[in-house]
Amino acid sequence: MSRTLVLLVVIPAALYLALCAALFVFQRTLIYYPQPRAVGSAETLLTLPVDDVQVQVSIRPHRGPKALIYFGGNAEDVSRNLPGFSQAFPEHALYLMHYRGYGGSSGSPSEEAIARDAMALFDKVYAEHPQIAVVGRSLGSGVAVRLASVRPAQKLLLITPYNSLEELAVRQFRWLPVQWLLQDKYESWRYAEHIAVPTKLIAAGLDEVIPPSSTQRLLSHFPAGVATLQVIAGTGHNSISESPEYLRLLEDGL
Question: Among 74, 30, 86, 36, which Cα is nearest to 56's?
Answer without folding.
Answer: 36
